[in-house]
Structures are given as structure tokens and as C-alpha cells.
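MOLECULE: protein
FOLLOWS: sequence and fold
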Amino acid sequence: MNWLLAAHRSELAAPGDYITLQAGPDHIACFNLDGNVYSWDNVCRHRGARVLQGTHGNKALTCPYHGLTGMATVGEQYLTQWIGDFLFVGDGSTRIEDDLNDFGPLLTGISKMIAGRHSFEQLPMPCEWKVAVENTLEDYHVATVHADSIGKLRLKLDSTDQHGKNSGALYTIEDPHTVKGLEAMAKYFEEVRPSHYFHLFLYPYTCLSSVGGLTFSLQHYLPSGGYTNLHTRLYGAKTKPGAPDMRWLYDEATSFNRLVFEQDAAICARIVDDGTFLTASETRVQWFRDAHK
């Protein structure tokens, strides 16, 4: 198992805070136990009951089957590693330095810009996980599939870069109405670039993106028996003292992202094979295929 960007420090700040990620029969749990963060298979080793329900929450670590508590309830443990304020989990089969390549400093900087999670949602996508990943790595479909959502931003691709098995893309937002709105809100945030959008891919399942540095979006495209279990989270950026309540902005961003992912799920359901060629604009898809050989 490659190292997986599982959570932001703010999500596991208090004892009892947890998140879970489901990949087929595997449930990866991250839990704050008495101030220390651990990760393990979300199943009680006594009789195999699921201990933590839902994608996130706060509760005492107690198995609902027989009432066992604490570490007696946990399954196989995973290794944990903080990169800035991002928590990564792994099984030790790879080195995190190899998996991240030179992304470590960049991820550390991004993690420090995030204030906390606003939303955490799941969406089943009726396609293989590799189809879902390839879809998010190319822009060719945006004009047709996302004409009424992310297509409205008029993203102009400035650069793409390969980092080992990972990749990144930087864009300029060219829709003047969007840029004007982001610029008007920029004064309330600590560090923003209102006309920029970035998208990072962390092999093999994870994507991290941001609109202007005001909001950050984390996705996991996890395999689930022929389907893809999409976990998506929206984080808000750190604001300046005295800034107004920005929940309305994060609510709008959450709804916007939900529409984008619903559109992706609908089009990915129609993909039945790998096709016979890739266009010149699908470089990141080719990088992913090369990495997954």
C-alpha cells in the first residue's frame, strides 16, 4: 500500500476525533486516542465487528458488539507520518520519501494554509477506480461534461509537472466574474492567489486542489469491487482576524463540487474500455498509466 494522505491535523485535534476511508472490504480508521493519533483497520480483533461508523465523528473507542474499549478494539495497525499538518498512513511496504518524491515541501506549505474541514461526503461512482482517476487527470472533457460547473471558470492550463508517480497542474482562472468575486474576498484570507487554480495527484488514489487558495478540496478514488468509492472533503483557508463568517462560501463550494462529481460519475459510467489513443492534452493520464504498468 502506498502512503495515503488521510487527514488534516484539524480533523483529529481532540481526543475521540476520527475519520474512516473505505476501500472495498478495507476500512482505514484514523483516531485521536488520548491526544495521540493512530491508524488501523476499523474492525475489532475480538469478533470482527466494525467499531467506528460513518466517515467521521467523535466518540469513545468502544466496540458496539461486546463493549471492549481502547486498543483492545483495533485491527491491524498502519504506520503514520505527518507531512506538515497532513497525516499520511501506510503499511510499510513503501518509503514515504519515495512515494511523495519532491512533493513533501509543497504539501507541508499547503497544509499550513488550511484552517479546517467544512464538509465530508461520499459518492459511489459506477466505474473502475482507474477510470475515475484518469477522468480527473484530464481537461479534455470539461467543455462538454462540465459546461455548467467547473467549465464556467474558464481554466487555462499554464503547466503540468511530473513528480515520480505523482503529477501537478497549475491553471489561471480566466472568467472575469469569478476572479472579481475571489478578489473581493481575498482581503479576508491570510494567503491567496485569486486567479489561480491548482490540481495535485498523489499516486494512486488521491487528488488535492484549490480555487485561489480560499478553499481546498481533497478526494480519494478508492476501489470497491468494480465501483469507485469517492470520498471528498472541502477545507477552508485560514482567515485574518475579524474576517466575517465564511460558511456561506464553503457551502457554495461544497454544492459546486458535488455537482462536478455527480457529472463525473454519470460520464464515467459510460466508459467501457481504455480506448485506443490519448490526445496531446492527456499527458497526466499517460503518466498515470505508465506508473500503473
Remarks:
- The longest helix spans residues 247-268.
- The helical segments are 96-100, 104-113, 129-136, 142-145, 176-186, 247-268, 283-291.
